[in-house]
Amino acid sequence: MSNYKPIIGITMGDPASIGPEIAVKALLTERLFEVCRPVIIGDAAVFEDIVKRFGSKAKINAITDIKDARFIYGEPDVYDLKNVDMSQFKFGEISAMAGGASFEAVKKVIELAMAGEIDATVTGPINKKSVNEAGHHFAGHTEIYAHFTNTKKYAMLLVEDHMKVIHVSTHVSLRQACDLVKKDRIIEVTELLHNGLISLGEKNLKIGIAGLNPHAGDSGLFGTEDDMEILPAVEEARRLGYDVEGPVPADTMFSKASTGYYGGVVAMYHDQGHIPFKLTGFKWNSEKQQMDSVKGVNITMGLPIIRTSVDHGTAFEIAGKGVASPDAMILAIESAIQLSKYRSVEKV
């Protein structure tokens, strides 16, 4: 299967964001066409505007059926949803139109993957407020995917070099996140992480499981969740055959994870995992007052289809200026390719 070139569906994200720009820039990376067949899902007029705005020589090939995609470098295929009114369109602004367009692109890429017309999906950044103003009440991409694939057990896995982080909970309040630290859920995400590491080709399957409280509770001095929920989950995971360590105080676990000591780690809540992850992959240039690079891939584990994503937001403040880095989008596409190849081998 070394010559297998999966079809990768890439959503434009919020059209008012950097999403369309990074999608086009990624598809102007010639080496990607050597290993996959990419197609953008969105509004072709938005992408025609992008290439004109930045003086690119790329030629947009608008299609309404995957079968019509040509997959030619320099001529990005765009599955045209015709859902953005360019006379009303403005970069960097929250709007129901932009939110609706981004939501429809996600819904369509899921449909294409579920129908087997594409092999994997990659999502550009969306604005949750715009999506909600359009009448679609979801906390984010992960929840949209879970809903339209009817998936009950899923988790967010972040990937950047040595740092691979899965979360027990994500888009909930911190107060609610503490209540969600339960033995069964920790075992569930540990299994999802183990399977994810294998599918990504990771050889080191040692997993670190973070404590919730300072010093992992310090034998109950700073909370009981570590002893009552996390430790029993670690012990059960070992009985199930997983190579796990924990609960490890989070302030030391992530420093070890960044060196490759762990193949992956389990974070108890959103910011516990995202902050060290973004310190690894996001590089801010204080002189230019902008990011030099924004690296990191978000993979939704547990779905019947493959979904990877950039792990950054819409960056409305630089949308339309031509300075957005496509690094994370390229990495997300490369991860989708790897996962597609692993899944294709599994089916043989």
From TrEMBL:
Keyword set includes NAD: yes
UniProt EC number: 1.1.1.262
Protein name: 4-hydroxythreonine-4-phosphate dehydrogenase PdxA
Enzyme's top EC category: oxidoreductase
Superkingdom in the source lineage: Bacteria
This protein's encoding gene: pdxA
MF annotations from Gene Ontology: 4-hydroxythreonine-4-phosphate dehydrogenase activity; metal ion binding; NAD binding
Species in which this protein is naturally found: Mucilaginibacter mali
Classification via Pfam families: PdxA
Record-linked InterPro entries: PdxA_fam (IPR005255)
Entry keywords, A to Z: Metal-binding, NAD, Oxidoreductase
